[in-house]
Each structure stands twice: as structure tokens, then as C-alpha cells.
Design a protein that fits this description.
The protein has about 375 residues and is mainly alpha-helical. Helix content is about 75%, strand content about 0%. It is built from 19 helices and two strands.
């Protein structure tokens, strides 16, 4: 977890006041237990600039910003829409904070970099790549004005690398992730290192190095505690099955997929849908075309409901591959056109569509 400016310098009595203040601020972000769609007037008044002598009324803002970032990050597999809402709130609180409240101008820059990075990451999940890039660029500018926190540097490298992978620039992503991994190695934080290894394995997989991906995932899994990081273990095993499928070992992929299924109890919706997606591709590889078709169509419907344009693109390509194996050329072309239509309905950015143009174009 990012260890930026916080409340650790306060005594117990002051710390209780900070927590109480934070809870009051958090209540302004919620409506029936969910993030508000638009900041209410009282929230804008609470977060508006105040004279320095009144800054004690706002001491909870750094704490609240980091809480919102963590809340957003925790929703990455469960609810991408909610992930974006929390990230927007984090950005608002970070931009409303002052150097005096944060502890220094450099610490404020760290806080703003943290919030903008999370917002960029959430936008990337939705396929809003232009907005994501702008947010990540701003995050990096803030970071360069900050304290030089190495953990924050690694976090932004990983988030930017994820964006590069969405843009199909896997070589650039791999370089960034190698730098992030060096930082994690030096910090000796097993969970963060494992998470970075999973991302680096994804880059290797897409670069056409599935064997390298398998090795990286083996190491990641060895560092993870299934009780502490069940979602990461599930992601790692799922990705490992994907790489075994890539090297032609469908049976091993099936074994790993089945093992991951045993870990999925209580797993978030988005992660379960991705498990179904993998199952559809496994069924396709094994020649169970009708079951594969039903599974992949259901997955695309789920991604459409979650408004994930990029994932709709990829699953549409997998469906097209399936129809090609079935010898159904009209349906293959139709499913690619449907994928493009669905992405346009979700207002996918031109850059997003350009990135996948070759995937959407019927041959």
C-alpha cells in the first residue's frame, strides 16, 4: 500500500479527531451507501479553498484521499463503474487539499499524483484511453514535483504500463514493469512484487513469450498467500492457464482453470466473467463449439452491461475465431460488426477503436 503523507504524526487524541473528521467527510460522498453522481453543494463548500488559519478543519483530506484511492482500487474486479466513481472522488479531494494540510508542497504533489494515477487507471479499464493517458501524464508531472517516493513511482509505472498494454505497446509496457519490479525487489514487499510479476507476465504473454509468462506467474504464486490475496492468486492462475493454452498445452490449461475455479468462491463479478471467458476459449480449443459459443456470447453480454468497450473488442475477436473454426464465415463477419457497434454505443474513443481496427474489420 502506498505510504505517502498521512496521520502517523498525530497523537492518539488528535488521531481520533482526524478519524471523526474523515468519517464526516466520507458521508458527503455517499447516497444510500453508494458514491454520489455529482458533488452536492455542501461538499463543494466543504472542499472549497479556505484561509490558512482555518486549515485544521481540513486535516482529514489527505487521509480521505488515500482512503478513496484504496476504495477505488478494491473495486477493480468487482465493479468497474464504482471504481471510476471512487477515483473521481479521490481526484476531487486531492485537488482540494493544500500544501499546509498535506505537510508540504512535495507531499501534496505525491497525494495528487496518487489520485490522478488511480483515475487514469479507472479510465483505462473503461477503454477511455485518451482520457487515461492525459490523467497518467498529469500524475507523472505531480510525482516529479513530489518527495521522490519510490513506491509511488512503482505504482505509476504499473498503471502506465497497463495503459500501454491497452494501446498494444507491449514492449514499452515491459520496460516500465521491469523498472517497477526492481523497486519492489528493493523494498522487499512480497504482495506488491507478486502483483507486479503478474502484470509483467501479461506483457510477456502478449509479446509472444508465453513460456516467460508461465515462469513469472510461478514466482508470483509462490509469493502470494491465498488467504491474504485470494483475488491475485485467482488472477495469476487464470493467466497461467491462458499462457499454457498459448503454447498448445490445452490439458494443462484445463487443469489450472479447474484449480482456479475452486478458488473463486466469493470472487468479484468482473473476475468471474473473465473466468467464464477463459472457459469459452478452452471449450473452443477442445472442439466443443456450441458450448463455447453460448459461453462467449454470455460473456460479451456481461461486458456490455459493465460498459467495458475494450473487453467487448477482445471477446468479439474470440467469437470470430470460434466461428472461423466452425466454418461459419457470415456469422464470423457479423460478430465483428456487432462488436464494433457495441463499442460505439458505449462511446468508445476514436483511439480505442483505432487500436482495435484490425480486430474489428471483417476479412
Amino acid at each position: 500500500m502506498y505510504r505517502g503523507p498521512g496521520v502517523s504524526g498525530y497523537g492518539m487524541f488528535d488521531y481520533d479527531k482526524v478519524i471523526d473528521r474523515a468519517e464526516k467527510l466520507m458521508s458527503l460522498f455517499l447516497a444510500n451507501g453508494r458514491p454520489v453522481q455529482e458533488p452536492p453543494g455542501v461538499l463543494l463548500a466543504e472542499l472549497s479553498p479556505v484561509p490558512y488559519e482555518n486549515h485544521r478543519n481540513r486535516v482529514a483530506l489527505p487521509f480521505l484521499t488515500k482512503w478513496l484511492v484504496l476504495r477505488s482500487h478494491s473495486k477493480r474486479y468487482a465493479d468497474p463503474d464504482e471504481m471510476l466513481h471512487w477515483a473521481l472522488m479521490a481526484r476531487l479531494t486531492a485537488e482540494s487539499c493544500t500544501a499546509a494540510t498535506a505537510g508540504s508542497q512535495a507531499r501534496l504533489a505525491d497525494l495528487q499524483a496518487l489520485a490522478w494515477g488511480q483515475l487514469g487507471n479507472a479510465l483505462r479499464v473503461f477503454g477511455r484511453l485518451v482520457e487515461s493517458r492525459d490523467a497518467m501524464d498529469l500524475a507523472e508531472r505531480h510525482r516529479k514535483s513530489g518527495t521522490g517516493d519510490s513506491e509511488l513511482r512503482a505504482r505509476l509505472l504499473e498503471q502506465t504500463a497497463s495503459l500501454r498494454m491497452a494501446q498494444r505497446d507491449f514492449a514499452s509496457a515491459a520496460e516500465m514493469l521491469d523498472e517497477a519490479l526492481d523497486i519492489h525487489e528493493n523494498l522487499r514487499e512480497a504482495s506488491a512484487l507478486a502483483s507486479g510479476l503478474i502484470l509483467r507476465a501479461a506483457a510477456a504473454h502478449h509479446e509472444g513469450q508465453p513460456d516467460r509468462s508461465i515462469q513469472l506467474l510461478n514466482r508470483a504464486i509462490s509469493l502470494l498467500d491465498p488467504l491474504m490475496d485470494p483475488e491475485l492468486v485467482l488472477v495469476a492462475q487464470r493467466n497461467q492457464a491462458e499462457s499454457y493454452l498459448k503454447v498448445g498445452q490445452a490439458q494443462m490449461a484445463l487443469i489450472l482453470h479447474s484449480a482456479a475455479r475452486h478458488l473463486q468462491g466469493g470472487a468479484p463479478r468482473a473476475l468471474l466473467v473473465r473466468m467464464d471467458w477463459q472457459e469459452g476459449n478452452l471449450l473452443s480449443e477442445m472442439g466443443s463449439f456450441n458450448l463455447a459459443e453460448a459461453t462467449l456470447l454470455r460473456v460479451r453480454q456481461e461486458f456490455s452491461a459493465m460498459k467495458l468497450a475494450t473487453d467487448i473488442a477482445y471477446v468479439s475477436v474470440d467469437l470470430a475465431t470460434l466461428y472461423g473454426r466452425m466454418g461459419n464465415e457470415p456469422r464470423r463477419e457479423q460478430v465483428l460488426l456487432e462488436g464494433r457497434r457495441l463499442a460505439l454505443e458505449l462511446r468508445a474513443e476514436p483511439e480505442t477503436l483505432t487500436s482495435f481496427q484490425e480486430l474489428f474489420t471483417p476479412r
